[in-house]
Amino acid sequence: MAHARHAEVPELQAYAVETGRHSISGLSSGAFMTVQLHLAHSGCFAGAGVIAGGPYRCVESFRGAAALTADAYVLNAEYICMAPLTPSAGPSARRLAALARETAKAGKIDPLGNLANQRLYIFTGRLDEVLSPSVVRRTCELYIELGVSPANIVYVDNEPAGHAIITDNPEDLPLAANRPPYINNGGFMQSHQILRHIYPGLNPPATALSGELLRFDQRPFLGPEPARASMGEVGFLYVPRAVKAGERRARGVHIVLHGCKQGYSYVEYVSGRAAVADQPPYGSRYVVTTGYNQMAESNDLIVLYPQARAEDSNLVQNPNGCWDWWGYTSPDPAAPDYYSKDAVQIRAIHGMLLRVCGGTC
């Protein structure tokens, strides 16, 4: 069935891009999704940045939490993967690493040997009141269990930061804040630290942007049940000038995943309805103010910004516009696939990456 498209939202285009040098980073639910997508398609990536995110398949830590699988996963998300009473009550990196190995053996994610030489930046704010720093520590331990050298991991847990991506923008929230839009001023651009670690030897960020920030239609990537994906109609792509002009190949594609309540179209849901009259969407702040584009411009990186969308219906309960890390998109609630190559959001984002790269990553 053909997808109807608004004339003002063009299709995603292909560019000349080097293969095998892509990367991904995200905050909060975007960080959980970063880990899932990183493991699902590790053959495509050179590294990842995880800001306040937990380990792979974290919500499956304790299946006995409730009689129904979906309920158990929600309880795990809230009380094991976000706010465990003590660190010992949190997820087990060893158990989840074993689960990842089983998943790879079943062919649902790429071979875990791809991770060996990858470079990781993992961050937790010391004052994060949304997601416990002890859970983020388990993410670091998980990657080490899966064979990543500790020498390739930058783990930061000493910043007095709340739950946020950090910038040096004076208009952003104070560093210790734990509230939307979860973009805090700490005097440095965290996106630059992430990219410098994944790609050693980068040039300094551009002082002015001469490339293009493009809107594209996400709907062709959402499959036969687009509402289940809980993704918006529009995504964003930053293309540096030299890449856009065909003068140079892109060094790679860096995928950026916003957190809950940060998507382009996010508004609160009240009693199942979007409260558009009471709160305007945050718009493109995560896309244009977090510093990724400046590093991309001076280093020939393309930046892909997929967008999740809030949904609160009989089909999908995602009122905060989060990426799926507990199974809300899964067709079968008793056998969630949110973590695998078959997951609707992972399939969509990977499809976008392939389109930008001309069919191969």
Task: Give a structural overview.
This protein has 361 residues and is of the alpha/beta class. The chain has ten helices and 15 strands. The chain has an eight-stranded mixed beta sheet with strand order 4-3-2-1-10-13-9-8, with helices on both faces. Helix 3 packs across helix 4. The radius of gyration is 19 Å and the shape is globular. 50% of the residues are buried.
Can you give the mean pLDDT? 92
Biggest pleated-sheet summary: 8 strands, mixed
Count of separate structural domains: 1
The structural class is alpha/beta
- SSE string, helix = H, strand = E? EHEHHEHEEEEHEHEHEEEHHEEEH
Number of strands: 15
Strand content: 15-25%
Shape annotation: globular
Taking Cα atoms only, what radius of gyration do you get, to the nearest Å? 19 Å
The number of helices is 10
Strand order within the widest sheet?
4-3-2-1-10-13-9-8
Low-confidence stretches: 1-6
- Fraction of residues in H or I helices: 25-40%
Q: Ends: how far apart?
A: 26 Å
